[in-house]
């Protein structure tokens, strides 16, 4: 049976069109960021769920054993290694973290292993974009699920080919940023907006009673370090991070047609408009029947499967209704009065945008 299914729309309602947030929650310092690390490794100790195709496996195993003083021919490993999987190991290295600190790593299978459950990652160097080793990862992998299978059925929880090792890598090299030597700092907005950038600059200048900050573009605010903080730039940065700023959001409606999700921003407005929308539901059910030959039928007679299809069409009657809303709450209330489903809501919003009644940017994912 095939039916039209609807997914619940998620519509957040905001009391006001703007609200205050700390600067540290909406912006980042230029140069103070995470750095991506990657490495190739081997996971051992799997319960027969390792790679079957040894393209990425046999030579690395032979190389590893050779470094340990064990000589193995690559051809002798083919078809005999079932508890090992080739993986890519990734991690994020924060700026100025000291050698000896530990960071989390993610382990992802690159072969045809069925599961990494119960496996242990062997020592894996993690390399940065410059080719230098910044950390070394090793340890037991946590998947947070399970796989249990028999001959005719299996049960799986969570994705079995990706796992994590909390604090699984030890930092060997630091990515250094000398904040104490800077006379100029830059704040990078997570969501570029001219109004918000200007508000940040004004709030910083008001807090320090000096013209220290200036918005140079929608995503960047330049801040000059005052003389009294030249020897303690971190304290100056900490004070700026605590400042609360009133953010501004564009009027925007985001639609995900694949899941039926609709998100309406707080600044969305709707001009008065008359709307009629009818719902159409089509149900198709396949019920094939098996037809047996009658008694004393000729030898050429055979059992046949005859297709049987039931088709049902339902269309809801729609009346012309006035829809208007100066706020998100009024807009949602008006649309709910029509009894629309999430899929209907997507069609209605697209039509309202085309008619010019929806005062917002419509984004379809």
Measured between the Cα atoms of the first and last residue, the distance is 28 Å
Number of helical elements:
7
Q: Low-confidence segments, ≥5 residues, pLDDT <50?
A: 1-17
Average pLDDT, rounded to a whole number, is 79
| Shape field | flat
- Largest sheet properties: 6 strands, antiparallel, barrel
The whole-angstrom Rg is 31 Å
Structural class: alpha+beta
Number of strands: 24
Query: What's the domain count?
Result: 3
What percent of the residues sit in helical stretches (DSSP H or I)?
Answer: 10-25%
Strand order of the largest sheet: 3-4-5-10-7-6
SS strand fraction: 35-45%
Give a quick summary of the entry.
The chain is of the alpha+beta class and about 375 residues long. The protein is built from seven helices and 24 strands.
Explain the layout of strands and helices.
Layout: E1 20-22, H1 23-26, E2 27-29, E3 34-44, H2 58-67, H3 74-77, E4 85-94, E5 102-109, E6 120-127, E7 133-140, E8 146-149, E9 154-157, E10 162-171, E11 184-189, H4 194-208, E12 213-217, E13 220-224, H5 233-241, E14 244-246, E15 252-256, E16 261-264, E17 269-275, E18 280-286, E19 289-291, E20 304-306, E21 309-315, E22 321-325, H6 328-337, H7 342-355, E23 358-359, E24 361-364
